[in-house]
Amino acid sequence: GGAMSFLKRFPPPAEGVRHQQPDTEAVLAGRTLGAGTLYIAESRLSWLENSGVGFSLDYPTISLHAVSRDLNAYPWEHLYVMVNAKFEEEETKEAPMAEGEEEEDSDDDVEPIAEFRFVPSDKSALEAMFSAMCECQALHPDPDDEDSDNDYEGEEYDVEAHELEQGDIPTFYTYEEGLSHLTPEGQATLERLEGMLAQSVSSQYNMAGVRTEDSVREFEDGMEVDIAPVVAGQFEDAEVDH
Amino acid sequence: MEVSHSVKERTIAENSLVILLQGLHGHVTTVDLRDESTATGRVTNVDAFMNMRLAEVTFTDRQGAVSRLDELFVTGRNVRYVHIPDEVDIRATIERQLQAIHRVRYFGGRDKGRKEFPRAKHK
Fold first, then answer.
1. Can you give the three-state secondary structure of B37-61, one letter per residue?
2. Farthest CA pair distance, chain A
3. What is the ipTM of this complex?
4. Smallest CA–CA separation between A192 and chain B, in Å?
5. pLDDT per residue over A110-153, tens digit each?
6. Cα-atom radius of gyration of chain B, to the nearest Å?
7. A67 and B70: CB-CB below 8 Å?
8. Domain Sm spans what residues (chain B) (predicted)?
């Protein structure tokens, strides 16, 4: 059969190779690419056929990988790698296709997916291959991750500096932690503020229909007390003498 | 109780719901992936980037074909939902994980346990 057009000749990776597995067949979407060596390197995953041509996969494009020993699903034990890209036999480029899903239902949102299987002749190597891939994947966190605010570079919490009451305040305290780190002045301030809060809360409860001398006096003074009732409509039945 | 060995990862976990997922170690959990496949297996690791490692997995691909996978690693980017198992008490799990992180950080006081930064000299 014809060569896959995305296969290129390149030298095997020299640096950061966490695991190398010779005598490994590569299979794309059920079609074999031949026998070669799989290189699990920190920068990328590469496979080179014994003839010297092969391909590389960048970790950010790899959605998942797995060890498959289910011979009902596929007749040989292998490392399964799912890639977020399309690799077509007839296409000239490796880049994900903009359109044109041939096998699947054409939902607009269907992502391109390519399924690789790496079948080592030495099945016992699968664990090591899997682990090496996990380690390398972890080196490539998602750069497009906008949802989380994971930029902690400049804000490392220096435990020792803080114990000596130097250094920046950490971004997160439990209540107990925070209390224990207050100076005596800080604790006094906290108590004062909490007292003020408690007072305004209790006067709020006074306003909520329980008539005391204080609350009646406040009305008679004509003071504007800008406190919202705890429950709207709660006082509709209250009898208040103005 | 597994807590990351990395200061940065502990800080990230402490400030996000990843901390809940890290509390699922050992639990059989179903993960829905971005491409609409699903994986059900025992959680063996979750890192701060929500990369998840599962063992003894039943994998259903997006066409519905079912297979077993001994071990699966899915990148955080491709996790859509994690079904928290019914037997897991979410609040207790989060509290336990936070305590584990704080134990690592503060254990033994000054001169024992893990130091977030190496000390220049001993007191």
1. CEEEEEEEEECCCCCEEEEEEEEEC
2. 99
3. 0.82
4. 29
5. 678 999 999 999 999 999 999 999 999 999 987 766 555 555 54
6. 17
7. yes
8. 16-88
